[in-house]
Write a structure and sequence with these properties.
This protein is mainly α. The chain is built from ten helices and six strands, in the order E-H-H-H-H-E-E-H-H-H-E-H-E-E-H-H. Among the domains are: 191 residues; 86 residues, no CATH class. The radius of gyration is 71 Å and the shape is rod-shaped.
Length: 408
């Protein structure tokens, strides 16, 4: 098969750039990527000396690039003094509520001690409820404990005063009777008896009133004592609620401290992470600068190659078949022989090939022609069977007729 190819190349400087780019890409592909200096490179188990030297060289070049790019490395601003002061103040303020909680706890403990002493008799047991006997009779009996210790003296003094006044009034009645001359008479005795009866009744009422007044005061004091005791119990319950609230408040304040610490920790972590990110970016810049430079160079060269595109033209001519080749040779032979004897070949009597006049003129050329046709026929069969083993070649006579027909 015949192939013809033509190519239009770009300018020579563009070809040189493309070749240089290809060399750099191949060279760069063999350079290991490192992100540390020479001090951080150590030969690994199974690593060949050549690979280790390549990594050492890459580490030295990385250190050089890192120094060269130090002015372009990302930087992280440090916290200013206001931020540091605010953070220090926030940290120093943590737990500042604890002294107040301790004082409140001590006061609550003192109140609890007093309440426990006061409530010693408020335990429910047997026939008492909070130290108070059950039932009206028991209550009445217990009231006597709250009577005034001076009640008997007060009552006696009041009765004595009443008796003194009674004696004075009786003497006044006798004096009146003596003045009237009725002393010792029956009417005088009745008058004194009536006065004595009334006085005795009034004396009894006075004594009963004083006793009732004392009992009422004792009863009121007893009721106040009961109320006070239950009030102390309620106060103890309030104190328990206060202590529970104090614990909840302490938990809430502690939770606030935890949140504040978490916020400060998050700020410090963000600051530290920013520093780590800047270090990582600087390391990445130094590690991949050769690749990035090569990428930029490749982009520029590719743009130039796009402006000077190479053109290729290709034409393909199929190879002739074995029959076409044989026929072409046979036709050529027939043309040569025709130039010597323009008369067509014919088969004379007796089967010999001769000329038109029936003579054997130039018989040697006739034999040579037939021999060459047979040779081309054999080539035809060989090529055909080589290309197509299952093909059926034509006979020599058919081959010769095709040659002669092409000549004619």
């Amino acid at each position: 098969m015949a192939i013809q190819q033509s190519q239009v190349l770009p300018a020579q400087f563009v070809q040189d750039l493309g070749q240089d780019l290809a060399k750099q890409v191949v060279a760069q592909s063999g350079v290991p990527t490192v992100s540390t200096g020479l001090a951080g490179i150590s030969q690994q188990p199974g690593e060949s000396p050549a690979d280790f030297q390549a990594r050492q060289q890459a580490a030295r070049e990385f250190t050089t690039r890192q120094q060269s790019l130090s002015g372009l490395a990302p930087q992280v601003a440090q916290q200013d003094q206001l931020q540091l002061d605010a953070q220090q103040r926030a940290v120093s303020g943590l737990g500042s509520f604890e002294p107040f909680l301790q004082t409140a706890g001590q006061q609550a403990q003192l109140a609890a001690g007093l309440g426990t002493t006061a409530l010693g008799q408020l335990q429910t047991a047997g026939t008492t409820l909070g130290g108070v006997p059950l039932g009206a009779q028991a209550f009445q009996q217990d009231v006597s404990d709250f009577a005034s210790p001076y009640q008997a003296q007060v009552i006696q003094a009041s009765l004595d005063e009443f008796d003194r006044n009674k004696a004075i009034q009786e003497q006044s009645i006798r004096d009146q009777q003596a003045a009237l001359g009725a002393l010792g008479s029956g009417r005088a005795g009745v008058q004194l008896a009536e006065f004595g009866t009334g006085a005795a009744r009034e004396r009894a009422l006075l004594q009963a009133g004083l006793l009732q007044q004392g009992f009422g005061q004792a009863q009121q004091a007893r009721q106040q004592d009961i109320a006070n005791r239950f009030g102390i119990a309620q106060g103890q319950q309030g104190l328990g609620g206060f202590q529970a609230g104090l614990g909840a408040q302490q938990q809430a304040l502690t939770g606030g401290d935890v949140r504040q610490l978490g916020t400060l920790g998050a700020l410090n972590q963000a600051q530290a992470q920013a520093g780590l990110d800047a270090t990582r970016e600087a390391t990445r810049m130094a590690a991949f600068q050769p690749q990035e430079q090569l990428d930029r160079y490749a982009g520029q060269v590719t743009g130039l190659l796009g402006g000077y595109p190479a053109q290729f033209q290709q034409s393909i001519t199929p190879n002739p078949t074995p029959l076409q080749t044989a026929l072409g040779v046979g036709t050529t032979l027939a043309g040569i022989y025709g130039a010597v004897n323009p008369q067509p070949l014919f088969r004379a009597e007796g089967g010999r090939i001769g000329y038109a006049d029936g003579t054997d003129k130039e018989g040697i050329m006739q034999v040579a022609e037939i021999d060459m046709l047979k040779e081309e026929y054999e080539k035809y069969k060989y090529d055909l069977l080589e290309q197509r083993p299952d093909a059926m070649p034509m006979s020599f006579e058919e081959f010769r007729r095709m040659v002669l027909s092409g000549q004619g």
